[in-house]
């Protein structure tokens, strides 16, 4: 597996994997990271995943992710998602404990 951060950045993925392809680097899966607060909407992630899967004929998987679910400081550590830093279009997910939501 080859893994890149910023899973919504299609231009970065195309550039990097085009270069890897030119060099015949062997790999079986493309991994990417997704942090909606910093990287953008899930629709951009899906578009990138669809594109690179078809372009490079590889399976693609999100291997690192986070999504804001609370504004509370539950552990006395700096919570990265705060009301004053909230961005337009980024909403909190309802808390579901430790449930992971898979999208198909």
TrEMBL record:
Primary enzyme class: hydrolase
Q: Does the keyword Hydrolase apply?
A: yes
Q: Which UniProt keywords apply?
A: Glycosidase, Hydrolase
Q: Which InterPro entries does the record cross-reference, listed alphabetically?
A: GH, Glyco_hydro_53
Record-linked PANTHER family: ARABINOGALACTAN ENDO-BETA-1,4-GALACTANASE A, ENDO-BETA-1,4-GALACTANASE
* Catalytic reaction annotation: The enzyme specifically hydrolyzes (1->4)-beta-D-galactosidic linkages in type I arabinogalactans
The protein's name: Arabinogalactan endo-beta-1,4-galactanase
GO terms for biological process, alphabetical:
pectin catabolic process
